[in-house]
UniProtKB/TrEMBL annotation:
It holds the Pfam family Cytidylate_kin. The keyword Kinase applies. It is found in: Cytoplasm. The lineage of its organism: Bacteria, Bacillati, Actinomycetota, Actinomycetes, Streptosporangiales. Residues 173-184 have a biased composition (Basic and acidic residues). Keywords: ATP-binding, Cytoplasm, Kinase, Nucleotide-binding, Transferase. Residues 5-217 form the Cytidylate kinase domain. GO terms for molecular function: kinase activity. Its main location: cytoplasm. It catalyses: CMP + ATP = CDP + ADP; dCMP + ATP = dCDP + ADP. This is Cytidylate kinase. ATP binds at residues 9-17. Gene3D superfamilies: P-loop containing nucleotide triphosphate hydrolases.
Amino acid sequence: MPLVIAMDGPSGSGKSSASKGVARALGLRYLDTGAMYRAMTWWMLRNGVPVDDAEAVAARVREPVIEAGSDPAAPTITVDGADVSGPIRTREVTNAVSAVSSVPAVRARLVELQREIIGTGGIVVEGRDIGTVVAPDAQVKVYLTASEEARAQRRAKDLAADPGASVTVTRAEQARRDRLDSTRKASPLAKAADAHEIDSTELGLVEVIEAVVRLAKEHE
Ligand code: DC
């Protein structure tokens, strides 16, 4: 069975860098499911859909064509053929994404697309519900955490170009997003019973990648 590595955890835990690094080290594909939720959110905002109205959001989930490229060296995300890799990282999208991703119809649509991309495997998939819902049969499941402070620092660095995004503001917005993502009814952020927890607060990126590669090798 080709390998599927599920990488779940809260925002700022270092999932993206670690997942891409693991995929490159092992010659696997890479899928950022958070980018897909962001792309859906960007499209809803762009089309004037009130993102706090679950019914309004649910009614439109099949309209955008969301495509995620799975090369870890150059992951891509497009909506209706247009590159949205920049716009999906704005604070506007970041602060609306939890509402959109709590809508069951959004999740059903994106999980369907994610399973198509995962196919028979050979891929590292990062998100919130990969080990629990999207790929419960993944051979390797990792739950990556880090202290709230370390996560806010990393996020603020990602948002350095945005003048409103101080560490304090980022920390508050992140705490809100984590609370929404962990308490929503539909597939909340959760550690799978068989996931290996890695705390990256004190670990460098290379050490996290090495730890996951070791787990993958044990499954060969
Ligand atoms: O990983 P990220 O911060 O780019 O994810 C953005 C949002 O998408 C996150 O706040 C919750 C949602 N998400 C989700 O609900 N399920 C996933 N598998 C991935 C992301």
